[in-house]
Records
---
Amino acid sequence: MLSALLIVFREVIEAGLIVGIVLAATQGVPRRGQAVSGGVLAGVLGACVVAAFAGELAALFQGNGQELFNASILLLAVAMLTWHNVWMASHGREMARELKAAGHDVVTGKRTLAALGVVVGVAVLREGSEVVLFLYGIAAQGGTTSAGLLTGGALGLAAGAAVSALMYFGLLTIPAGRLFQVTSGLITLLAAGMAAQAVLFLQNGGYINVLGGTVWETSWLLRESSIPGRLLHTLIGYVEAPDGAQILAYIVTIATILLLMRLVGKPVARTRPQPAE
Amino acid sequence: MKNTTLSLLLLAAVSASVPALAADPIKVTLQNHKFTPAEIRVKANTPSVIALTNKDATAEEFDSTALKVEKVVAGNSSGNIRIRALAPGRYPFMGEYHADTAQGVVVAE
């Protein structure tokens, strides 16, 4: 039961952290609950479909279906996270003004809700399909241990949800004025880590064959497969032995997001207050 | 055993001269949640491919942080796993869903 708990927990950590960050990033945006729960629901349904057709998916594209699929949905999430951050950078000032002026909920964040819903969906889908396959395997074996293992799985899921809550309420302790900066930073690092992970899948599919040599190795310090390693892997894209292509993807993603945020943020920062939309 | 090693080395040597896609895969079988062979020898600094046949009814995830690979192979099916050029050393891998029995190691030399 403990092993099942640990495996499921390890898988749901990533989705749990991402849901927590998205909830904090959308603090005060009306109907964000719908977007997040919609993302979770779509992710769970998608995970079941992906698990059920794991063999068929893998067989696509000369046996590279799984790698291409994972890389695609990760890059989709990177695009959505980028869009969110850039959009927030261009509207952050208006939002702050509206907050001050009207003192009510921020309405302008609504548009990127869908984008963040997609991100949640992707995170749940990726980790969820592994959980489904694992639990299905246990259930299929039958026997007396199944009940215990499934209980472990359920507890693992609950622990993952607890990670979400911890992340969310932890972030909420940050003063409202700084919360946006913190969540922007977290989302940028999330996106960079996902981009590097997408590169890994493309390498494993044979689509990227350059800069494959390990650049540094820090497994002596922190093993990526440990729980803290896994947490950092999700949050900042920690990899114990990254190669050149992964590092490049990581840096380019951060640079692109920061550059775009700066480009769209500047005009708003310079002009005088305009009437709200 | 010696023959197997020799042929694997030969295979690795051949794969050095052709792109990774065309390399002859190293056949590995998963049955009763155990890998056979559990120790896979590859030539160092040369990419290779493991053709994993999962003879169990349930899916397994071939997982290795050291090899930078995670690949799900559905029950009663097979999948190819690309192994990048490795520095000499031992690279453990496991079947994540049955890590107590599904353990193996890639030895690059």
---
Amino acid sequence: MSISSFSVAVTGAGGSGAVTTGLILLETMAQQGFYGFMIRSSGPQIRGGESAVMMRFDTNEMLSTNNQFDYLLALDWFNIERFIDEIPLGANSLIIYDLSAGEVPEILSQSKAQFVGFDLKKLAKSIEGGRSNMVGLGLLVNTFSLSNKSINKAVNKILRHKGEKIVTSSIACIKTGMEEQSKNNTWSVHNMTPIFEKDPGDALKTESTRWSITGNEACGLGALKAGVRFVAAYPITPATEILEWLAPRLENLGGGLLQAEDELASINMIIGASFGGVPSLTATSGPGLSLMMEGIGLAIASEIPIVVVNVTRGGPSTGIPTKSEQSDLNISLYGCHGDAPHLVLAPLNISDAVFTTYWASCLAEQLQTVAIVLSDQFIGQSRAIINKPSFHEVNCQRTTLSKETFSNEQEDYQRYEILDNGVSPMSIPGTKGCMYTADGLEHNSKGTPSSMSVDHIAQLEKRQNKLIQFDYGAQWAEISGHGDVVLITWGSSSAMVNEAAQQLQKQAYAIKTVAIRLLMPLPIELLSEALKDAKKVIVIEQNQGRQLFHYLHAQNSLPLNAHAFARSGPLPLRPHEIVKFVQEVL
Amino acid sequence: MTIELKPKDYKSDIKPVWCPGCGHFSILSALTKALAYLKIPKHQIGFVSGIGCSSRIPAYVDSYGFHGVHGRGLAVAAGLKAVRPDLHVIVAGGDGDGFSIGGNHFIHACRRNMDMLYIVMDNQVYGMTKGQASPTTAPDWVNKLTPHGSGVRPFEPLAIALASGSSFIARGFSGDPSAMSKILVEALQHPGFSFVQVLSPCKTFRPEQVEWKKQVHNTFIEPTNDSVLAAQRIHSDDGMGLGIVFQCKIPVWSQHSSIQVDTQNSFEAKIETITSEFEL
Amino acid sequence: MSKEFLMIKSPEHLFAQVYAMKCESEDRLQDLIDSLNQHNNKAAADIFSRTIELIKRSIENIEQRIQGMQLPEIPPWESQWHYDVQPDLVCIENAHYLMSPLQALELAIYNEMRLQEFFKQQVDKGVNEDVRLIASELFFQEKQLIEHILSWKVQFENSEIEQNEDFDPPNIPE
């Protein structure tokens, strides 16, 4: 049976090299012409403990989880029960394991998977400096008929920093594994050799460049493209990689990253920098976002553009730092005291993270407000092979008041002047003749603190109108398919929802999906348009509290009989769960 | 052609709402004198504050100002200075704003030694919220929120500043605006983080502070650059010693920081290079 | 505690000092007037308003006298007042939002009396004849000014209330 995608997991004790195996495999597949992505999982220890990688490969761009894993390479059985929830296995799964690792654990032998064991340790010992994980990798790659060219390129790229010797011995181990796999007939017996619908090498022949990138890197890139040049931040899992990626690159671009003493400082620093005229950003996760709320309100009230990337993790409170969830929608929408409208956008997947972060940063500058970019750990810390993203550029410029547009003969500068589009020109410190004091206190159009109702009403309306009247265009959502059954979703769930929709469409259901990118302000009319022919609406998200579902209802944007499929992390959604739910509803 | 600005010119049109008799008037006066003396262009001043009576000062100065939230002035100023080293950044706040909620930022601002001036207008009370104890209030001062006094040893700003690495530490008194203006001129000229605590009596909630003028003493005639000596001075002082206690020359933050914000040049080519890093 | 007596070396030096201190006095008085008005104590503010008019006139006098003179620049901390005669010092810290007109009068007089003392010291201890002469003139001008202010006292002699009572509790604006 020909397939377009298959999934591989590699598990082992920390130090056994499960992650390296995954990285090399991903890179090899990429070099061969495949697309795919990889999730990492680990125990709580800083070093050692246990680790796993879960990968999915496809001949087309693929960003959704699978329903089941085809292969599990178990380098040992260390704490495998920690991961087994994340690696669903079935009768068609093949577990490749190291014979020297001991008896197969109960929990695995209960699954209906097939097993094939090799003495990885012994095989590794036959190579100088050899390691079991590389032999295991060889077993896998032979299955996928990967070329030596791809293998060599991948190993060199991933391991060259460890030196020539390691590269050589690794390649030798892989070769050994490949030979062993050729001799073993388990694969053919169980029909485990994948036959692809399309030649993966086709990807290599196309015009489009392909990338290997993580979601966190993608967010960073989007920000840089939009002109962000200053970042102040405090490390937090799973956002730290954004900061680490940005730090040296910001320097190169005439900007910089300042490590703050805490999130309270981070948010205030970027407000100060933005006040000074430089587009600024910070990145954090739930616990940090909670701390930043006060600062976010200040930026909204004083109309100073900033971007806050939140890489959502399991909540609430300290929660599950290394796992993903979509449970920070509520705080992103409602976290500020007072009436504080702002922007909330959520990338749909790793590739989209470049555009969405870029777009959010541009919008923040243009509309002089706060843009919260709701990413999550699934997007942030996964690495994917994607087509180079391309998108149309948008206006990233802040409306400023330069000395050319203001002269002393004019009346006093009104920083918060009420204009038609709600956006009043912002003067940048250092410019003569148009000085003002930015204030978190409510103020009049000049910026002087005021408790008068006429000023409060005018400024509240200004801050809301500037967002509502703006034309965001078609990028507010990705809509695909046709039908009277509409699946609404957002963020990282989008990929799984789309895959589920495809599966349902193959079963002759007419499904339309609406993956919302712009959550606040919600484009109510456009959403209504998308739902106008819907007979069944289902909102799908990865949190326990049905946060999007409630939000859409609050905006009067859902029919009363809409359904909710909402389940919390830490396990990622899988297409078959969604398929099952939709079938039950219909 | 630069026009000679008088201290009056540095004041904005907005009349302060401080109580008559408030020490903050003197501080505003001394500061405007210092700015005029140094001929600092008004539009190149970024005046940042938090929340409290003291924090209202930016509105009363004719410059760019930022009136942020309680305790976070130093953080805003750090971001502003990091990207705009060309601006003269002044931060002002009270003892509650600076040493209670802002305590953490105070320590790290001292550590960073960014070139800016931080004035704390210390009246040992939370004036804006009707008179509660602040971190610098004596432990036996009775008020509604702490009816038996706080019972806790007061925060020692100069000691903390020294331990945290501030390179300029001084104490002034609103009752001696002339001396204060000298301290402020020195502080503004000092390359690095200048911390000036100004004892500024609160007429309304701490009327007994009128006695301060009898208690202050001009102890610190000359600053020392020896931190051990400075520590001795600070610890043997009763908290009412005036003058520049400590001043040393250490690298300013911008000298060793890699952040050099350049918004003039386009970096198109470099963005392309960064983008191409992801290619297989 | 007092600062040391400063030997004024020349008329220009004297005028520079006096001019600076009078302007400073004017500024601080204006602050006080605005503040008292803001705090709804018009009676006390009024006393200072009338005082500031006198100060402004004496400033105008000085400006006429220094026409054509080259005055030395005096940095703000070099005003050579005795510590407890600094006008702005007293001006500010003895004010209170509930102060009575009589208390305001005392404050206004106190400033001018200290200025008078400064001139007296220059007359007594100065060595430059020109300086001593001018200081003497200015001493008498101050005396007149003080008498003028004292003449207002009669308007308030019958008011019994030492300090007004505030029937409203304090606000919390922020």
